[in-house]
Write a structure and sequence with these properties.
420 residues, alpha/beta, 2 domains, 16 helices, DNA-binding, transposable element
Length: 420
């Protein structure tokens, strides 16, 4: 039987404590991990010490203290309990009292998992693992059995959190808001592909703020978009300088109805993405390099020159791409009127594509969802994983100060740098 590690003296720093424990474990032949490993014993020791401290506070006297005898309630031995932790199952002894009034908090009655396990489940779910894959993961990594139903109950806990997140107050003004669609498969009698719309704002502080998720049926019009944008406005968004969107019927009119000074910009990112749909993947990198001078040109005239160079290179191989850009040119060029720093924000594909990639990864593993709420829950978990605070935020770009000042000049009186 493996020896129990002796407690170390108080007052040593963390590094010396770790070194002493590792040396002691090595001397005694104790593994670092495993059912009888050092981490398991330490976790057991910490939990049992905390539970004993809770019992002392509950009874009002220390263990074995004479003053506690015949006080009406006293310690009454322990009961064995196995709890699932981040290092695997740990068997602990939970103290009992004679009148069964002890209500532990560190490991609650009937609690079989520490809270860190729930976070692991949510993290794995956000990465796209199914309930069966998560259950298998716990069996392989932790040697613990967690049922699919338990995993579903853990993820269901975020539904209330998702509702709070969907109704949280937003900033008063956003320099830019992007509206995009993610397509998910939902079984409603039969499996159909349906859009879930995501609105991503750039804050005055240069953060990416995911404002919300809205499920559609593919036939959305002005009434739908007016309701969505009014909801965003009612959550505190009084002004948006630029709204970037693409091909969504009724959205431009709804934007100018809700924010009358907002500029509606055709999404350059979608134009680039649509370009790649016509081309073989092996040419994407070269094509992206040739296109960048077009949408980063300092003026419309310069953009036209760069596009002529692009066309001369690719027209023979991909004439449909050239026609796509020529057809979209009048909707593409308005953003060239903005300062180069503003255009850099509008064309910063990484910040948007990283969100979309996380969403696509999560939904691809599921195949399809039984309900609309299940799909929204999956996408919310992916959103949650982007920002541990649960606000759905992350830095937009390192060069935000120049862009902020450009917005403050271009949209004078609407953007205040001091708000950063």
């Amino acid at each position: 039987m493996t020896e129990t590690l002796e407690p170390v003296t108080d007052g040593v720093d963390q590094q010396r404590l770790a070194e002493q424990l590792l040396a002691q474990a090595k001397e005694q032949g104790v593994d670092l991990v495993g059912p009888d490993g050092l981490l398991n014993q330490l976790t057991k020791n910490v939990l049992e010490t905390a539970l004993d401290a809770e019992m002392t506070e509950h009874l009002g006297y220390d263990k074995h203290e004479v003053s506690g005898r015949n006080g009406g309630n006293s310690r009454n031995g322990t009961r064995a309990k196995t709890v699932l932790t981040e290092i695997g199952p740990v068997e602990i002894e939970v103290p009992r009292d004679t009148d069964s009034s002890f209500d532990p908090q560190i490991v609650k009655k009937r609690q079989r998992r520490l809270t860190g396990i729930d976070e692991i489940v949510l993290s794995l779910s956000a990465k796209g693992l199914t309930t069966g894959e998560i259950a298998a993961h716990f069996g392989d990594v932790y040697g613990a059995s967690v049922s699919k139903d338990t995993i579903s109950r853990i993820t269901d806990k975020v539904v209330a959190e998702m509702t709070d997140w969907s109704n949280r107050p937003l900033d008063r003004v956003y320099p830019v808001v992007f509206i995009d669609a993610i397509h998910v498969k939902i079984r409603d009698g039969q499996v159909t592909s349906r859009p879930v719309y995501v609105a991503i704002g750039v804050t005055v502080g240069g953060e990416r703020d995911i404002l919300g998720l809205w499920a559609g049926d593919g036939g959305e019009g002005a009434k739908f978009w007016l309701a969505v944008l009014t909801e965003i406005k009612n959550r505190g968004v009084a002004d948006v300088c630029i709204v970037v969107c693409d091909g969504l019927k009724g959205l431009p009119d709804a934007i100018t109805t809700v924010w009358d000074r907002a500029i509606v910009q055709t999404c350059v990112i979608h134009l680039i993405r649509n370009t790649f749909r016509y081309a073989s993947r092996k040419y994407w990198d070269a094509m992206a390099r040739d296109l960048k001078p077009v949408y980063t040109a300092p003026s419309e005239a310069a953009a036209a020159e760069r596009f002529a160079e692009f066309a001369s290179t690719w027209v023979q191989q991909y004439p449909a791409i050239i026609r796509l850009w020529e057809t979209s040119w009048s909707e593409f060029i308005p953003f060239l009127d903005y300062d180069v720093e503003i255009r850099r924000v509008i064309c910063s594909t990484n910040a948007i594509e990283s969100v979309n990639a996380r969403y696509r990864r999560a939904i691809r593993a599921r195949g399809h969802f039984p309900t609309e709420q299940a799909a929204l829950k999956c996408l919310y978990l992916a959103t949650r994983s982007l920002d541990p605070t649960g606000r759905g935020r992350a830095r937009w770009a390192a060069r935000w100060k120049p862009a902020l000042n450009a917005f403050a000049i271009t949209f004078e009186g609407r953007i205040t740098p001091s708000g950063n």
